[in-house]
Design goal:
It is a single chain. The chain has 120 residues and is an all-alpha fold. The chain is built from four helices and no strands. It has a single domain (10-111), classed as Four Helix Bundle (Hemerythrin (Met), subunit A). Helix 1 runs antiparallel to helix 4, helix 2 packs antiparallel against helix 3 (72-84) and helix 3 packs antiparallel against helix 4.
């Protein structure tokens, strides 16, 4: 079993392996990193352009991606960020985006450790 990672639920890693082996885990982690990186950039772009709809869609996508790999805190922060776009206070949404970015970096580090541990 995966060692405890602060930002990723190790039980989800085991479930992904049970579903499709290491190749499936590798693919899911790759998709998470690729999609989340893109969606965080899109959210940033949306906020820079005052396009709260784009930011909302981007945050929503991060919720799903984070849930797929058990990044529960990231999922929660993305949900809060998504909700903050409904009654946009620009500074509040930016603050939530910054918190999300910091958590993403922690999750990314955990994913990289998992990739090494499982030799993916």
């Amino acid at each position: 079993m995966a060692k405890i990672m602060p930002s990723v639920n190790p039980e989800i890693m085991e479930k992904l392996i049970a579903l499709g082996g290491k190749p499936f885990l590798k693919k899911m982690l790759h998709l998470f990193l690729e999609n989340s990186t893109l969606k965080i950039q899109e959210a940033s772009d949306g906020l820079r352009q005052n396009d709260y709809s784009l930011a909302e869609r981007s945050f929503h996508s991060i919720i799903s991606s984070a849930g797929n790999i058990g990044a529960e805190r990231l999922m929660s922060l993305a949900r809060e960020a998504e909700l903050s776009t409904k009654k946009p206070d620009h500074n509040e949404v930016l603050d939530r985006l910054e918190k999300l970015k910091k958590e993403f970096e922690l999750v990314k580090t955990s994913v990289e450790e998992i990739q090494k541990e499982y030799q993916l």
